[in-house]
Amino acid sequence: MSEALRPRPPVNRDNAFFFDELNAGRISVQCCDSCAELRHPPVPMCPACHSLAWSARTMSGAGELISFVVMHHPVRPPFQDGYIVALVELAEGPRLVMNLEEIEEDHIEIGMKIHVAVRAVDAELVLPVAVPAQ
Ligand SMILES: [Zn+2]
């Protein structure tokens, strides 16, 4: 029997760059070519000025923990009981949802400094992962 893989994210022409950048080891978000607004998740139009022109902007990986949940139920492979889902605000402003790893639940604090790493979760999927900043 084959090992269960994480569900694949739906990739479309708006967000394909995000996953291409992750595959290249970078965390990037959309930056409006007209007003420089940074945005995530990817959408076709700038919510600030309605421009359709944008470019990918690489983020530093520095961030702050805004919120988190510890998932206990239901447990379904490949996820394991007690994994942590975090809302991280990048130093540049955009917020991303990702797993939080390398920390025990009792040590998590809202506002703690986060480093966003880029990790292969299996042979075909690379995702951002939050870890405590050193
Ligand atoms: Zn704009």
Q: Helix and strand succession?
A: HEEEEEEEE
Q: Can you list the strand order of the major beta sheet?
A: 4-5-6-8-7
Count of DSSP-assigned helices: 1
Shape: globular
CATH class division of the largest domain: Mainly Beta
The first-to-last residue Cα distance is 39 Å
Low-confidence stretches: none
Question: What share of residues is helical?
Answer: under 10%
- Tell me, rounded to a whole number, the average pLDDT: 95
**Number of domain modules:** 2
Record field, number of beta strands: 8
What is the radius of gyration?
A: 16 Å
β-strand percent reads: 35-45%
CATH topology of the largest domain: OB fold (Dihydrolipoamide Acetyltransferase, E2P)
The largest pleated sheet is described as: 5 strands, mixed, barrel
User: What bound compounds does this protein have?
Assistant: zinc ion
The CATH architecture category of the largest domain equals Beta Barrel
What structural category do the secondary elements indicate? mainly beta
Protein name: OB-fold protein
Domain ChsH2 C-terminal OB-fold: 57-118
Pfam family, one: zf-ChsH2
Domain ChsH2 rubredoxin-like zinc ribbon: 20-54
Spell out the blueprint of helices and strands.
Layout: H1 16-23, E1 28-32, E2 38-39, E3 54-58, E4 62-71, E5 83-90, E6 95-100, E7 113-122, E8 125-132
The structure holds zinc ion.
Domain ChsH2 rubredoxin-like zinc ribbon: 20-54
Domain ChsH2 C-terminal OB-fold: 57-118
InterPro entries: ChsH2_C, ChsH2_Znr, NA-bd_OB-fold, Thioester_dehydratase-like
